[in-house]
Amino acid sequence: MALRTRKVSKVPQDLTKAPYYQAALSMNDLTVIETCTHTEGKKGTMLLEDHLLLFVLDGKYTVRFGDQEFTVRKNEMVLLQKSIVVEFEKSGEEESNYLLNYMMFFLKEELITEFIKMADLQNAYPAAIVPISISAVNDRLVSYIESLKPYFKEPEQVEDGLVKVKLLELLFDVANANEKFLFQFFMLKRKERKNITEVIEENITNPVSLNDLAYLSGRSLSSFKRDFQAIYNTSPLQWIRNRRLDMAKELLTHSSLSVTDACFSTGFENAAHFSKVFKERFGYSPSSLK
């Protein structure tokens, strides 16, 4: 069983901190475009606060959401909707020394709405929103990516207006390359609350806070707690802790995982705290099961 990374990075804001940051373009002091180069072995978990469009230029970028896994390879792009938590793994091919080179675009709903209005697009048929979509990159998009590279040499000299124009150009090129992505844009700008049960089940083993879960469900913290209480008849903090403890007990009983690994695999971030609450719930320490 693969262990999850305990740190959840909120992106794009955390990506401008070491060790993630490579080069970035900003608009209104917010990171909107990043270019990154890594070698084999980088893993992590991120909570998407904006819609993310990622292009792989070399290597491969693997994304896991729930029980689904998606691998994005050279000259492919992936669109991820915001308000989800995904695991990622960065790797490359042996013949290219496991180099991974990619570019990320963070798309706010306001920008997507402006693009749809500017392009005078009509939603011709209903489409279901897909959390993660992958498509090939055509020559037009390859040329677009190349056109951005000079801007990263002096990012502080690039005006907000120019960054916005380049983002709108990107959306036109993406829509031209893949109609499926075009109709996903219509869905991305819809603001709908998510089902609380689905959000909890998708993130039960992710070390996310109640604030994060409220955000992922499209609610304020107070609304999330109220709606959770109505469904589960208990507080979210208590219910989630007990569910994680039950899962940890199953792992310790039926697998070879250590106490520390079971702790981290079920969303706890501190082994000492895990052992304490485990004993409070079951009456014996987790180490006694091993």
From TrEMBL:
It comes from Paenibacillus sepulcri. Gene3D superfamilies: Homeodomain-like (1.10.10.60). This is AraC family transcriptional regulator. PANTHER family: HTH-TYPE TRANSCRIPTIONAL ACTIVATOR RHAS-RELATED. The keyword Transcription applies. SUPFAM superfamilies: Homeodomain-like, Regulatory protein AraC. It comes from the Bacteria. The keyword Transcription regulation applies. Keywords: Activator, DNA-binding, Transcription, Transcription regulation. InterPro entries: AraC_XylS_family_regulators, ExsA-like_N, Homeodomain-like_sf, HTH-like, HTH_AraC, HTH_AraC-typ_CS, Tscrpt_reg_AraC-type_HTH. Residues 194-290 form the HTH araC/xylS-type domain.
